[in-house]
Design goal:
transmembrane; 2 strands; membrane; transmembrane helix; mainly alpha; 8 helices; DUF962 domain-containing protein; about 180 residues
C-alpha cells in the first residue's frame, strides 16, 4: 500500500532534496544518475520477456506511470526521455558490451557515494528508503534541471523554504 505522501510531488522531492543540499553533490548526481539509469536500462534490455518486450520496457512503464501520477507535464517529459532510450536500444542505435554497461553502472555508484561522503557528509537517501530513492533519483535530477532553467519557480521556492525550516533534530535524522 502506498503511503499518503507517495503521490505528493512536493513531499517526494523534499525527501530526496533533503539528502542533496551541496551543489557539488547535486552536480555529481546530475551526471551519474542518468549514467546509472541508462546503464541499467541497457542491462535490462538484454532480458527479453515476450516477443521483443524486455525488462527495460517494463521498467519504463513502471517509472512512467509513477512520474505521470506525480506531475503530468514533467511526467510526460520524463516518459518521453525513457521512451527515446527504449527506441535507441530497440533499434540498436546504442549498443555497449555488458562489461561497459557494468563499468558505467559501478562508476556512477562510486561517484555518488563519494559525493555523499565528501560533500554532503551524510548518508545517501537510499539507505533510508531504497525503492523510493531509486525511482525518485532520475525525476529529481530532471526537476533540478527544470529549476535551473527557470521553470516552476514557485515549487522550487517552496522546497527551499521547506528544507530551510528543518529542525536540528530533523537534520540529525538525515545523517
Amino acid at each position: 500500500m502506498l503511503s499518503p505522501t507517495a503521490l505528493d510531488l512536493r513531499s517526494q522531492l523534499r525527501f530526496y532534496k533533503s539528502y542533496h543540499r551541496q551543489k557539488a553533490n547535486v552536480a555529481i548526481h546530475a551526471v551519474f544518475v542518468p549514467t546509472i539509469l541508462f546503464a541499467t536500462m541497457c542491462m535490462l534490455h538484454r532480458v527479453e520477456l515476450y516477443r521483443g518486450t524486455t525488462l527495460t520496457h517494463v521498467f519504463t512503464l513502471g517509472y512512467s506511470v509513477y512520474y505521470l501520477l506525480l506531475s503530468l507535464p514533467v511526467g510526460l517529459l520524463a516518459t518521453g526521455i525513457l521512451v527515446l532510450a527504449n527506441v535507441a536500444l530497440d533499434r540498436k542505435w546504442v549498443h555497449m558490451s555488458l562489461a561497459s554497461e557494468l563499468a558505467l553502472f559501478v562508476l556512477g555508484w562510486v561517484c555518488q557515494f563519494t559525493g555523499h561522503a565528501f560533500f554532503e557528509k551524510k548518508r545517501p537517501a537510499l539507505v533510508d528508503n531504497l525503492l523510493q530513492s531509486l525511482v525518485l533519483a532520475p525525476y529529481f535530477i530532471l526537476f533540478e534541471l527544470l529549476f535551473k532553467l527557470g521553470f516552476m519557480p514557485q515549487l522550487h521556492a517552496q522546497l527551499e523554504s521547506d528544507l530551510s525550516e528543518l529542525t536540528q533534530d530533523d537534520r540529525a535524522l538525515l545523517r
